[in-house]
């Protein structure tokens, strides 16, 4: 077997050598798959190229709407021409699409598919003649005499073709892992079905080569009927266990895709009119490195924590300043007398209160120190214009402090500090049953994560103010 490791960032996929691939099987001018989709009730638009020349490798791209009973909420999809034959084969399966979870299930609950993040798999280059599908060793398939090519389809090959034959036509070895318990339940990591790939590519709202070639999913097949909700919950649980097994064996470290993560991806384009300048101050290198690492984080929650850590880094400095200021007020008070026990006990109590303060109190003191009221309001107004209602009770992110600049009973910088700390607690205290923090934990695959972009930007802007506040010549200790 000719195997050589290659990669793209942290993500990888099983790849068959392109040399033996024949891309002439489905040419972009082949109208048959498009006609079949239209007959099946799909609304297919005229082809688009999306950065690739017509007829090149993937062929033209088609945006379409899935069959439905009508109405404005028809689910849209986007696929290259080469994937359309698989979509045609899948059109009669009656899948229920869970767009918010980037997954789908069968109506009887026996089949569930969930999209995987692009990060976490490894890939190797394999010649088509050397590729052997992991499905061939499935204990469940052998014990039940079932065809697992039919049960588990992909965007490159439908249920009526053998996976090994697929390798002679397409450049992707689509099945990474496939195992069964011998009693009817199987789990597989492979290229996504054409249906799920179409939903993802439309939701991502952008087309790049990795999005075409590395769209993978985890698929689960159950032996008995289940409700849609029960099937999704059970599949997530089994997938999590399987991911742990793979990570423990250092085979891979896959994870489910964060809901609509691509919509909130950090833009790398520099804003118009922004000029790069020579740094006017020297900032702390460690805090700066935490800030820089946030943009490269793989999920919104990871970005949030990296920005938070760049603020948290200065907590000891802030605590020192606060302690010294309070001790000076005590010592320089007109009633303070070193010869009186009462004065000394008052000083001891002040020290005790400072050492026993909670992290939240320390964090609020830090934000109050580095974020003046006018700056806090300016940050809020800019974000509130971009994300209307997000920071109010009508916002999608729950169990966090709501921001009200006009509230005279609470200092606005402290409101911001509480909100940042609340969300931090929901992320880091992601424990079974919610832990002991009194709020629901937030996990990377929760639907709520799709709405934390505004909070990521909030903590980013506050981190900028904090780091520059402690730059040389300002608040540096």
Helices and strands in order, then pairings?
Elements: E1 3-6, E2 15-16, H1 32-39, E3 43-44, E4 61-65, E5 76-80, H2 84-90, E6 96-98, E7 103-105, E8 111-115, E9 123-126, H3 139-144, H4 148-151, H5 163-166, E10 175-180, E11 186-191, H6 194-204, H7 209-213, E12 216-221, H8 228-248, H9 285-295, H10 300-312, H11 315-331, H12 341-355, H13 359-370, H14 373-386, H15 412-428, H16 453-469
Parallel strand pairs: 2-9
Antiparallel strand pairs: 1-9, 3-4, 4-5, 6-7, 7-8, 8-12, 10-11, 11-12
Helix pairs in contact: 1-2, 9-10, 10-15, 10-16, 11-12, 11-13, 13-15, 14-16
Notable features of this structure?
16 helices; 11% strand; 477 residues; alpha+beta; 38% helix; three-stranded mixed beta sheet; elongated; disordered N terminus; 2 domains; 12 strands
Description of the molecule:
- The chain folds into two domains: 3-257, no CATH class; 268-469, no CATH class.
- Helix content is 38%, strand content 11%.
- The chain has helices spanning 32-39, 84-90, 139-144, 148-151, 163-166, 194-204, 209-213, 228-248, 285-295, 300-312, 315-331, 341-355, 359-370, 373-386, 412-428, 453-469, and strands spanning 3-6, 15-16, 43-44, 61-65, 76-80, 96-98, 103-105, 111-115, 123-126, 175-180, 186-191, 216-221.
- The longest helix has 21 residues, at 228-248.
């Amino acid at each position: 077997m000719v195997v050589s490791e290659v990669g793209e960032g942290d993500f990888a996929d099983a790849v068959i050598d392109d040399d033996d691939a024949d891309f002439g099987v489905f040419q972009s001018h082949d109208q048959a798959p498009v006609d079949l989709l239209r007959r099946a009730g799909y609304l297919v638009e005229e082809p688009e190229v999306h950065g690739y020349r017509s007829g090149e490798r993937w062929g033209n791209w088609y945006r379409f709407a899935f069959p439905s009973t009508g109405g404005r909420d028809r689910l849209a999809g986007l696929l290259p021409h080469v994937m359309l034959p698989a979509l045609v084969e899948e059109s009669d399966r009656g899948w229920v699409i869970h767009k918010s979870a980037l997954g789908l299930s069968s109506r009887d609950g026996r089949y569930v598919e969930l999209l995987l993040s692009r990060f976490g798999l490894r890939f190797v280059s394999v010649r088509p003649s050397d590729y052997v599908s992991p499905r061939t060793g499935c204990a469940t398939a052998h014990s039940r005499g079932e065809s697992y090519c039919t049960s588990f389809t992909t965007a490159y090959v439908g249920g009526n073709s053998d996976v090994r034959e697929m390798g002679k036509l397409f450049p992707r070895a689509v099945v990474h892992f496939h195992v069964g318990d011998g009693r009817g339940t199987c789990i597989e990591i492979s290229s996504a079905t054409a249906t799920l790939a179409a939903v993802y590519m439309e939701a991502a709202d952008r087309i790049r080569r990795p999005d075409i070639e590395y769209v993978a999913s985890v698929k689960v097949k159950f032996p008995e009927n289940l409700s849609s909700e029960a099937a999704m919950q059970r599949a997530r649980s089994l997938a999590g266990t399987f991911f742990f097994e793979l990570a423990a064996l250092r085979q891979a470290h896959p994870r489910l895709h964060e809901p609509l993560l691509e919509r909130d991806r950090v833009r790398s384009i520099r804003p118009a009119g922004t000029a790069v300048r020579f740094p006017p101050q020297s900032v702390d290198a460690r805090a700066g490195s935490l800030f820089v690492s946030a943009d490269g984080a793989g999920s919104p929650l990871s970005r949030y924590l990296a920005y938070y850590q760049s603020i948290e880094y200065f907590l000891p400095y802030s605590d020192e300043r606060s302690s010294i200021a309070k001790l000076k007020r005590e010592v320089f008070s007109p009633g303070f007398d070193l010869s009186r026990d009462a004065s000394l006990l008052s000083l001891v109590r002040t020290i005790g209160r400072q050492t026993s303060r909670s992290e939240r109190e320390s964090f609020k003191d830090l934000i109050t120190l580095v974020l003046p009221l006018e700056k806090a309001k300016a940050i809020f107004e800019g974000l509130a214009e971009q994300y209307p209602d997000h920071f109010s009770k009508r916002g999608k992110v729950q169990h966090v402090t709501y921001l009200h600049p006009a509230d005279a009973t609470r200092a606005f910088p402290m409101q911001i500090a509480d909100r940042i700390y609340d969300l931090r607690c929901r992320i880091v205290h992601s424990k079974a049953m919610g832990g002991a923090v009194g709020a629901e934990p937030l996990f990377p695959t929760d639907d709520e994560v799709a709405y934390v972009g505004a909070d990521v930007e909030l903590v980013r802007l506050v981190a900028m103010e904090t780091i520059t506040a402690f730059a040389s010549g300002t608040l540096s200790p």
